[in-house]
User: What shape does this take?
Amino acid sequence: MVDKILIILGIILIILGLFLYFKVDRSIPLDRLPGDIYIDKGNFKLYFPIATSLILSAIISLVFWFLTKKL
Assistant: This one.
């Protein structure tokens, strides 16, 4: 049962990733949130998305929790 859930979730993530990649006007502002580290000095750029990672981790954890709770 878990293998089917992971396969379906993987397919959904691939479709969502392709949709966000090819979409020109991004309506989901997940870049440069407060808490993300962005350093731009000359030809050196560093972007470390701490807050974005925490938010996405919480969302994915909630999705898995709801999926396992219903089973």
